[in-house]
Structures are given as C-alpha cells and as structure tokens.
Write a structure and sequence with these properties.
The complex is a heterodimer.
Chain A: E1 4-5, E2 10-14, E3 19-21, E4 24-25, E5 31-38, E6 44-50, E7 56-58, E8 64-68, E9 73-78, E10 87-95, E11 102-103, E12 107-112
Parallel strand pairs in A: 2-12
Antiparallel strand pairs in A: 1-4, 3-9, 5-6, 5-10, 7-8, 8-9, 10-11, 10-12
Chain B: E1 4-7, E2 10-13, E3 19-25, E4 31-37, E5 43-50, E6 53-57, E7 64-70, E8 73-78, E9 87-94, E10 102-103, E11 107-111
Parallel strand pairs in B: 2-11
Antiparallel strand pairs in B: 1-3, 3-8, 4-5, 4-9, 5-6, 7-8, 9-10, 9-11
The chains are: A mainly beta, B mainly beta.
Chain lengths: 113, 112
C-alpha cells in the first residue's frame, strides 16, 4: 500500500524566515501530488498540485514545491513566511491511474510574529 | 456561494445513538468523498462515490453507511456511535476521480 511521510510534525519559526516542509511517498509509479493547508478551525484548501510537466510548481500565497522523482519527494517551500501562514500543512499523493488520495500525517507550522 | 457544505458543523451525542451528517456540493462535480480526521490530525479516506456509485470503501466499520441520493449530495449515517468515532469528518468533491478535491468545512463529532 502506498504511504506518505511528512517528517516534521511541528515547525516553529519567526516571520520572514524561510520554510521548507518535507514530503516523501512510497509508490514507484506515476503519481499526482498535492499540498493542502488547514488554517486553525478551517477546512483544507489546496495550495498547489503537480500532475506533469515542470517539476517546480508554484501555488497560492507564495508557496512552491519541487517534485524530485528520484527521491520520491515533493517538498513545500516558502522564502519568507508570515504570521498568517500558521496552519497545518498536508501532503497528499494519488497514483495517477488511481482514485484514492493518501495523506501524510501533517506538519503543524507556527509562525511567531 | 459555499462550494462544499456540511451540516451540522458540530454534533455532540451519546454512545449508542444513530446520527447523520449531510454534505452538498454546488460545483457540478461527479465525485464525492468522506474523510475522517482524528485527534492527531491524521486524515484518512472512508468512502467515495462517483456518479452516485460507490468506488472507494475503506476498512470502515459497517456502522458507517454512506448514501448518495444524487450527484450533489453524499450523506454519512452512523449507527450505534462509539467513543472512538469522535473526530472531524470532512466531505470533499472533485470534478471526477482524477482531479483535485475541494473540501467542506468539516463536522466535529463528539461522542460522550
């Protein structure tokens, strides 16, 4: 069965610091990759997605992610975080020919003002 | 203008009761999903319907029964509620199974 790992469970950083969240998956075939964000008390929102093409994907709110196939990774980055980026971030993977989205365990990010 | 809506937002009930959570999407999507998010924020798929047909049925107790009266609705009925059912339940929808999913606001279920 496919699995998704997010190695950082909690990240605390100051405003203007750079953020990188790791995501690795176990499936060896073609995948679709997603990052979702869940702000406190809110539902999940899509930050960005990768289906094919340029492995460097730009999303909303200044986030980007890079798909590195050889490392089975899809790390999320933001050069300069804001207090409003405090949230839980979820990586999700789906086999391209499949129908099930598998989520990582989430990373809780706290940005101190 | 809410794309995916769920009712109720909060549900507090006693063990052994039967309850339902409703989900509606106005995006014209063909596929809908139910997820369970536990206290550690781990999110796991429970069910998925595509054009009113069940396509994903994970290892969920059969006390949980999804019902899709039409493409825009996917309700979740839970019989004989247990303490371990306490969680946040999210509904989601997508254009079809290959597209990104849009999530509802969640229903926080507390079983006492």
């Amino acid at each position: 069965a496919q699995s998704v790992s997010q190695h950082n469970h909690h990240v605390i950083l100051s405003e203007a610091a750079s953020l990188e969240l790791g995501c690795n998956y176990s499936y060896g075939g073609t995948v679709n990759l997603f990052w979702y964000v869940q702000y406190p008390g809110q539902h999940l929102q899509l930050l960005l997605k990768y289906f094919s093409g340029d492995p460097l994907v730009k999303g909303i709110k200044g986030f980007e992610a890079e798909f590195i196939k050889s490392k089975f990774s899809f790390n999320l980055r933001k050069p300069s975080v804001q207090w409003s980026d405090t949230a839980e971030y979820f990586c999700a993977v789906r086999e391209a020919a499949g129908n099930k989205l598998t989520f990582g365990g989430g990373t809780r990010v706290l940005v101190k003002p | 203008d809410t794309a995916v809506s769920q009712t109720p937002k909060y549900l507090v009930t006693q063990m052994g009761n039967d309850k339902s959570i409703k989900c509606e999407q106005n995006l014209g999507h063909d596929t809908m999903y139910w997820y369970k998010q536990d206290s550690k924020k781990f999110l796991k798929i429970m069910f998925s319907y595509n054009n009113k047909e069940l396509i994903i049925n994970e290892t969920v107790p059969n006390r949980f029964s999804p019902k899709s009266p039409d493409k825009a609705h996917l309700n979740l009925h839970i019989n004989s509620l247990e303490l371990g059912d306490s969680a946040v339940y999210f509904c989601a929808s997508s254009q079809d199974i290959h597209y990104e999913q849009f999530f509802g606001p969640g229903t926080r279920l507390t079983v006492l």
